[in-house]
Amino acid sequence: MKKSSATLALLGLLLPLAGCGGDDGGGSGKATITVLAASSLTGTFTELAHRFEADHPGVTVKLSFDSSATLAQQAADGAPGDVLATADTSTMDSAKSALDGTPQVFATNTMVLVTPADNPAGITGFPDIEQQGVSFVVCVPTAPCGKVAAALLDDNGVTAKPASQEVDVKSVLAKVTSDEADAGLVYRTDAQAAGDAVESFEVPRAHDELTTYPIAALQQSDHADLARAFVALVTSSAGQDVLDQAGFGAP
């Protein structure tokens, strides 16, 4: 009897310790969270993911970049994911049923016109996209970058039609840097990230069509605490510094 009692007592001590070996939601165990983010956040969220992993040993951040509309639809349909960050509030609203809490706006952005570095069409400013023979590209109308581009073309009375409409802003930039288009409308942050590969021009009334980025944890997350912690990092002063260095505006 004494031996059995001692064994039971020992088991009673070990069981709580065994429970501590897995993921406790705070990042002490192994876990993977999936962050769905607009393609214009590629550079900043990649850096923030590395910081998050460093602060949460054993945790892996899987990043999925795409058009905001595509990602919001995936989230609304219950696809696996822990965090959603989009490039406009209306797209985030379309995934409202999947959100865990109220979205937080964490950054803003504006659009610029970019040309290839050698600027083969000789563009000197935004109005030149209406010149005969100049080809320019924009995002599809369903993407936030497409909505903003369409509004800016309308605001500035541009009647010329784009040569193509791309799925996201990264695809627009790729068309320009590969010399498949004379110009393209992209976010300021994408132009900054492209560096010497492009030449940038201001777009009149761009600040009237400000792009606003919201972020939220998702209800389908299996790691709710980690999802909220990633949102907290993005909205923290450290996260804001990363965004600011990339050219994003304050929320």
Task: Please give a structural write-up.
With 251 residues, the protein is an alpha/beta fold. It folds into two domains: 30-107 and 212-245, D-Maltodextrin-Binding Protein, domain 2 (3-Layer(aba) Sandwich), CATH 3.40.190.10; 111-209, D-Maltodextrin-Binding Protein, domain 2 (3-Layer(aba) Sandwich), CATH 3.40.190.10. It has helices at residues 2-19, 42-55, 68-76, 89-94, 144-155, 169-177, 188-194, 224-235, 237-245; strands at residues 31-38, 59-66, 83-85, 99-109, 111-116, 136-139, 164-166, 183-187, 198-202, 211-218. Residues 1-28 have low confidence and may be disordered.
Question: Concise description?
Answer:
This protein has helices spanning 2-19, 42-55, 68-76, 89-94, 144-155, 169-177, 188-194, 224-235, 237-245, and strands at 31-38, 59-66, 83-85, 99-109, 111-116, 136-139, 164-166, 183-187, 198-202, 211-218.
What secondary-structure arrangement, pairings included, does this model have?
Blueprint: H1 2-19, E1 31-38, H2 42-55, E2 59-66, H3 68-76, E3 83-85, H4 89-94, E4 99-109, E5 111-116, E6 136-139, H5 144-155, E7 164-166, H6 169-177, E8 183-187, H7 188-194, E9 198-202, E10 211-218, H8 224-235, H9 237-245
